[in-house]
């Protein structure tokens, strides 16, 4: 089972993920991705879905047209873990490929 990040590890992780921030109501991080159009947003989600399935770690997300809102938390740890940080980094890399 994944372990929740310590407060110091969490701070360090968020410093390395400047576009992510703490979620208000949960032990989680979140980010909004805004793409050029729906096709880009859907392509991003598809790329993330393939990686998430390989990691057996699935994001909570919401998509409307060109916007994808993401919340990452590890359910079985009831909070933020290194798995979330790893997936956030992968999401940032995919978004960067679209110029986001």
From TrEMBL:
GO biological process, one term: tetrahydrobiopterin biosynthetic process
Enzyme Commission code(s) on record: 4.2.1.96
Catalytic reaction(s) noted: (4aS,6R)-4a-hydroxy-L-erythro-5,6,7,8-tetrahydrobiopterin = (6R)-L-erythro-6,7-dihydrobiopterin + H2O
Superkingdom: Bacteria
GO MF, any single term: 4-alpha-hydroxytetrahydrobiopterin dehydratase activity
CDD domains on file: PCD_DCoH_subfamily_b (cd00914)
Sorted UniProt keywords: Lyase
SUPFAM superfamilies associated with the record: PCD-like
Keyword Lyase among record annotations: yes
Family annotation (PANTHER family): PTERIN-4-ALPHA-CARBINOLAMINE DEHYDRATASE
Family that this chain belongs to: Belongs to the pterin-4-alpha-carbinolamine dehydratase family.
HAMAP family: Pterin_4_alpha
Protein name: Putative pterin-4-alpha-carbinolamine dehydratase
């Amino acid at each position: 089972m994944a372990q929740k990040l310590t407060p110091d590890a969490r701070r360090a992780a968020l410093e390395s993920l400047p576009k992510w921030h703490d979620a208000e109501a949960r032990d989680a991080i979140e980010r909004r991705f805004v793409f050029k159009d729906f096709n880009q947003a859907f392509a991003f989600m598809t790329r993330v879905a393939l990686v998430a399935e390989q990691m057996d770690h699935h994001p909570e997300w919401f998509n409307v047209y060109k916007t994808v809102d993401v919340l990452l938390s590890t359910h079985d740890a009831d909070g933020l873990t290194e798995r979330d940080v790893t997936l956030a980094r992968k999401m940032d890399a995919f978004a960067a490929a679209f110029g986001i």
